[in-house]
Amino acid sequence: KERFAVIGLGTFGAHVARTLYELGKDVLAVDFNAEIVQAAAAYATQAVLADATDRTVLESLGIDQVDAAIISLGQRMDVSTLAALHVRELGVPFIAVKALSEEHGRILQAIGVHEIMFPEKDRAIRLANRLARKDVLDFLPLLAGYTITEIKAPPEFVGRSLKDLALRNTLNVQLVAIQSGNGPTRKINIVPSANDVIRDGDLLILLGEDRDLDRLDDFAR
Amino acid sequence: KERFAVIGLGTFGAHVARTLYELGKDVLAVDFNAEIVQAAAAYATQAVLADATDRTVLESLGIDQVDAAIISLGQRMDVSTLAALHVRELGVPFIAVKALSEEHGRILQAIGVHEIMFPEKDRAIRLANRLARKDVLDFLPLLAGYTITEIKAPPEFVGRSLKDLALRNTLNVQLVAIQSGNGPTRKINIVPSANDVIRDGDLLILLGEDRDLDRLDDFAR
Ligand SMILES: Nc1ncnc2c1ncn2[C@@H]1O[C@H](COP(=O)(O)OP(=O)(O)OP(=O)(O)O)[C@@H](O)[C@H]1O
Ligand SMILES: Nc1ncnc2c1ncn2[C@@H]1O[C@H](COP(=O)(O)OP(=O)(O)OP(=O)(O)O)[C@@H](O)[C@H]1O
Fold it and tell me: Where does a domain end: B104, B124, B144?
């Protein structure tokens, strides 16, 4: 059975732990705040009070045996980086860390962290870009939380028809246009029909709520 | 010209302000932390030291005249909700707030906030869902005597297709995945196809016996 260590139980960490736990995974939740650890008993297999910068403690908790570690330790770069270093040295095969800044991200990358996340920054930039745009669909931004965005056709979509993909039902986003080719051979198919098929290299113009469009980013990675 | 009020300049707020400002918008940035306000002068039209729960101050700043307000005020629900209420009462047509929790979100909705965001929660749930999935790579490390290792694409490989490299024949290792980019733009191409080309900066994930992988190290130096 897969075992995960979630180190730091702020908003981000608590949600990671809870989601994994509810999916039936073995979750070791770590924080140095007693109240938080107490609450974590409800969403983790094991909730432990510990200082994540203490390598000996981490080792005694069996962190070296987990399949993945997720680190989100608050506003101090040194604390977060040190914990990531220890977890790396303990040989954990997959480490994800919520970074405080781009520079922090580069340090984490240098020490071998596998996944570095900037959720507030990503969401902030998306919001700002939407608020700043003057679109044909200008009135749409007033529909709270909706955005028009473009993504390259993910490999999983290529060769499939819109009817088959059923984006509205599966991902709650609507494909409003497909742009194929570029330069003089560029074509744009607005309000595509159900039998249209997505081709490699197509640009998909999607309408949806930000939270649903965010999910597509995973496809498009 | 569009004018935006960004109230609260933590990670989220600062990125909203900076993005809008760099897009040429008129940005009024508000925070009650003097150091933060000082730094904000670099990414806002006007950076003001003020307590966002003080309606009189907000009014004197001309918040009632902005096109949209973006509020992200930290860990206190009362502070955030009060600021949102004032901004709403001042008649700002579009208000976006970073919520602390689902319950906080419901309160914000009740007072008429137009857009409520949960960036850490959304990202956390996506990460957890992905980690919980069984990927092709999971069982590979269990092949006895074999190792999965990663190397940076050696210069000799860059620009060449897998078919052309014929790693299995020449070096007795199998390329099981190529990882390109990093951080939020990281992509992983699992079981790449023969025509895929290796790019500078790619991380090659290889399966093979240690002695064969060792030989690759010579390439990768
Ligand atoms: N050295 C440490 N050892 C263990 N836990 C720590 C340590 N330092 C901080 N923490 C915990 O990490 C958690 C970090 O959460 P916090 O809310 O500060 O921030 P965050 O990671 O910036 O954000 P978010 O709320 O978005 O998850 C807190 O619960 C805190 O108690
Ligand atoms: N009453 C207030 N008036 C003005 N500014 C405030 C007030 N209360 C808090 N702030 C500011 O709001 C900002 C909130 O940022 P903080 O980093 O605490 O959190 P956040 O909103 O949880 O998260 P993030 O870092 O993800 O943006 C801080 O810069 C703080 O100084």
Answer: B124
The answer to whether A109 and B183 have CB atoms below 8 angstroms apart is yes
Same domain, A18 and A95: yes
Tell me how far apart the alpha carbons of residues B4 and B61 are, in angstroms, rounded to a whole number.
12
Ligand 2 pocket mutation, candidates B16, B28, B32, criterion most atoms within 8 A of CB: B32
On whether both B70 and B153 belong to a single domain, the answer is no
Do the beta carbons of residue A199 and residue A191 sit within 8 Å?
no
**Are residues B19 and B104 both part of a single domain?**
yes
| A103/A111 Cα distance (integer angstroms) | 13
Distances from the Cα of A194 to the Cα of A7, A116, A164, A175, angstroms:
46, 38, 8, 10
Of the CA atoms within 13 Å of residue B218, those in its CB half-sphere come to 5
Cα–Cα dist B183/A102, whole Å: 10
Domain final residue pick, A118, A151, A170: A118
Q: Do B186 and A109 touch (CB under 8 A)?
A: no
Residue B129 inside a domain? The answer is no
d(CA A84, CA A181): 44
- Please choose, from the candidates B60, B116, B87, the residue with its C-alpha nearest in 3D space to the C-alpha of residue B4: B87
Task: Pick the closest to residue B28 from B12, B41, B10 (CA basis).
Answer: B41
A204, β-bridge pairs: A151, A178
* Domain span including residue A20: 3-118
Residues with CB under 6 A from ligand 2: A 120; B 8-13, 31-33, 36, 51-53, 72-75, 79, 98
pLDDT tens for the 221 residues of chain B, in order: 789 999 999 999 999 999 999 999 999 999 999 999 999 999 999 999 999 999 999 999 999 999 999 999 989 999 999 999 999 999 999 999 999 999 999 999 999 998 899 999 988 987 887 788 655 344 433 344 556 667 888 888 999 999 888 887 777 788 878 888 876 777 888 778 888 999 998 988 887 776 677 666 555 54
Q: Say whether A120 and B2 touch across the interface (CB within 8 A).
A: no
Give yes or no for a contact between B153 and B215, defined as CB atoms under 8 angstroms apart.
no
User: How many domains in chain A?
Assistant: 2
